[in-house]
Amino acid sequence: MISAVLARSFWERLFFISDILRNTAYGVLDGDSRINFAQFPIMQFFMECPDARPAMKDLIAVIGLSSGAASQAIDSLIEAGFLERVRSENDRRSTLIRTTEKFRAFRQKPIRHFEKMLDVFRQISGATPEEMAVDEELFVRLAESRTGGELAVLKHPSDLSVPGLARNGLICRDKLSLLPVWILIIHFTTNLKMPALVYYYGKRGRTTLGKLRLMNYLFFLSDRKTGDPMVKDLASRFLVSSGVVSQTLNAMIQDGMVERVNSQLDRRIIRVRLTPQGLRMRRQTATSYTYFMQSFFKDVDPEKIGVFDRALDLTIHFLKTDGRRFLVPDGEDDSSSRPTGIL
Predict the structure, then answer these.
(1) Residue 301: is it exposed, middle or buried by C-beta count within 10 angstroms (0-12/13-18/19+)?
(2) Could you say which architecture CATH assigns to the domain 209-278?
(3) With CB atoms counted within 10 Å of each terminal CB, which end of the chain scores lower, N or C?
(4) Residue 295, class by beta-carbon neighbours within 10 Å (0-12 exposed, 13-18 middle, 19+ buried)?
């Protein structure tokens, strides 16, 4: 079994790469059509499986939105011509959601963008074709490990399943090898994060997407000790009003996960930080991710583990140097190191 240090470095680097790719994909899509906070997880789902025809309840189970928020977001995407409702052939009383030709054409833009990025990476990264093949094999296996069935995310054997949370059973395993690598990475990291967050948050699936997004970002800041944000910082990060952030924070404060504190430099400034309970949850989820990585790689050939380790370093170096030109400008000087608010 690989060491805990190496296992943790694997998921930390994968999360970092995923955040960059997700931000870039968001920017590529958003350049053509404004996609709001609630619409993005729906678009992400159909980016991964454009041929899926989920019922509303199944789609909600996968993306983590409330029924009201999902219905509103889907209505707006239908109005934009990206999705449509159709009757189920097996049950005429059931309504399914499917993509339109406009969406499938829309989907090709980020795919072409990342294909070009990957071609450049192959040319200049120094990775051999054999190493690239090993990397793609392991990315598919990682995605398979988080697809369908109950998701094992916790360390204690009695807690190895979280029923009904963030299950991507609508994605067929035998099609994963056909998906682009960048989608596989986002798919894997999304499904590694979500169940542990929901489980440890104590809501068993009833927590809101807004809470999860804020918690994910506060986790990021706590890991890097970059300072506690203000409400306006969170509003800017998530492209929502300060009122929406405050409303979500009030609920999180009642849950005991976050708190408001006065700045030590200026008592008039209010900042937001994790409580001891929130920090404890962060340590638990980090342990969960590390345990998963150790379990996954125990059956992988050591030589392939070394190739994968090197590939992650090469990818991060590429994204910070030559690959920066592929990152969508967003007005910030260092978009390659900017954390995302999207799970």
Answers:
(1) exposed
(2) Orthogonal Bundle (1.10)
(3) N
(4) middle
When pLDDT is cut at 50, 70 and 90, the band that residue 256 belongs to is confident
Encoded amino acid at 246, one letter: S
Write the CA distances from 161 to 149, 164, 204, 233, integer angstroms: 9, 9, 12, 35
User: What is the spatial distance between Cα 285 and Cα 324, in angstroms, rounded to a whole number?
Assistant: 30
Count of all residues that appear for the chain in the document: 343
Q: Which amino acid is it at 30?
A: D
> For the residues of 288-313, what is the DSSP string, one character each?
HHHHHHHHHHTTS-HHHHHHHHHHHH
Task: Please report the sign of the dihedral spanned by the C-alpha atoms of residue 290, residue 292, residue 297, residue 299.
Answer: positive
Report how far residue 74's alpha carbon sits from residue 83's, in angstroms, rounded to the nearest whole number: 7
CA distance linking residue 146 with residue 325, whole number of Å: 31
Reading the block at residue 273, the tokens are 């930080």
Q: Which option is the CATH number for 4-206+279-327: 3.40.640.10, 1.10.10.10, 1.20.200.10, 1.10.15.40? A: 1.10.10.10
Closest-CA residue to 309 (of 284, 168, 244, 301): 301
Residue 55 DSSP label: B
- For 29-94, list the strands marked E by DSSP: 83-87
For 255-293, b/e burial (b = at least 16 CB within 10 A) is: bebbbeeeeeeeeeeebbbbeeebeebbeebbebbbbbb
CATH 1.10.10.10 in the chain, residues?
4-206+279-327, 209-278
Backbone angles phi, psi at 260, to 5 degrees: -95, 140
Q: Please count the CA atoms within 13 angstroms of the CA of 37 that sit on its side-chain side.
A: 20
Which among 100, 110, 96, 105 is positioned nearest to 44, based on CA atoms? 110
Query: Mean pLDDT across the stretch 260-270?
Result: 81
